[in-house]
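Entry 12.
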Amino acid sequence: MRYYFIAGEASGDLHAGNLIGELAKIDREAVFHGFGGERMEKAGMQLTRHYRDMAFMGFIPVLMNLRTIKKNFSLCEQDLLAFKPDVLILVDYPGFNLRMAAFAKANGIKVYYYISPKIWAWKTYRVHKIKALVDEMFTILPFETEFYRRYDYEVNYVGNPILDAVLEKRTEADLPKFTGENNLPEKEIIAILPGSRKAEISYLLPVMLQAAKAFPQYQYVIAGAPNMDASFYEKFTGNSPVRILWNKTYEIVQNSKAAMVASGTASLELAILNTPQVVCYKMAGGALCHLLGLFVLRRLNWVSLVNIILNREAVKELLQFNFTRKKLVAEMNRILNEPGYAGRIRNDYRELMKKLGNAGASHRAAEKIWEKLTEGNP
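Predicted 3D structure (tokens):
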């Protein structure tokens, strides 16, 4: 089979890479092509465009990069037709991917979606577009099955691949060994995970670094995004002793007493690794975007996957106007110094793990995709 993948950010690259690896085990004649990142390329996909040239977040950055976005659409359309895939597999990233789904459908190409867009949180109207354009949806969150069923659309729940990715690399915490191997001081660590996009890092990292000054007894380690180099972070860190490490996110988190993290997949990863956290988020646009965010998120009480899955506030969320140095310091102080607070967070994590279920989502997704593609064939 010929598979065309589109993933537009780091988490999509990770999970698509794992799925490609599993598909290659099942389909020995598989050929993979598409848009994504180094993990997908390492798994065997021929890469046409890296997601670093596609990840624009927020209303203003999108407006400023409209020409680039249009070029990406045009390139993808031409590449898709030239490759002639048996199936287009889209991974989250709905703004780009739903348009490509429409193009593929118009050209007679089968469309599968792996990792549903979070339409249960905002832009619910997209469910009608998905029903019209997507032949099979493979979901990773348990509540999504019932959400889609309300719209008379059956999905394939395969479990959460984040669990696979984390458990595969999880090791026992060993702070002396970790600090020694990475030339770090022998001090307790607080992890800083400000996201993988330039825009979110630019809005989150300065406030996180300001809050860090309130706890000088700790050292701070930034988990560097694979698509960002040191010079980008140094614009914010300056001459501060904050260190940046790449390709060691899980090791950093496991050896940290607490973490400040951008809202997204990373918050769930931290929960699986059992590290107390504060979830942070801010986007461009000031008051207008804050009000817009309140409007589009009116269906949800929370934005982090940890809280959404548990249906309560297990971890603190500081969003938009609430994302300030003062509030971040206050929450970090509770985690670090208030008896029982970090323990309560970890108890909630244990309940979350029960809800996530068993590992093996990437393998189950690959098997289900192969089953659907070969259905009815001798």
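Annotation: The CA atoms of residues 128 and 151 lie 8 Å apart. The first helix runs from residue 10 to 26.
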